[in-house]
Amino acid sequence: MNNLSKVIVNAWLIIAIGTLVYALVMIYLEGWDKGASNLFIPFIATSWYLFRRGMYKRMTKNGQ
Description:
By secondary structure, this protein is mostly helical. It has one domain. It is about 85% helix and about 0% strand. It is elongated, with a radius of gyration of 15 Å. The mean pLDDT is about 90.
């Protein structure tokens, strides 16, 4: 389970970075008014990354 948790944490980090790059490109191409709505997905992905990383650290600290 420990290796799977590492993969999931890293996957959320990759998703967060990828969606942030996409959002920034869309802001550049469409302007702030239309492109700013694309920042919602990177925010959610970053939140999940931080949550999963915290849970992973807590699990490894407790020896599970």
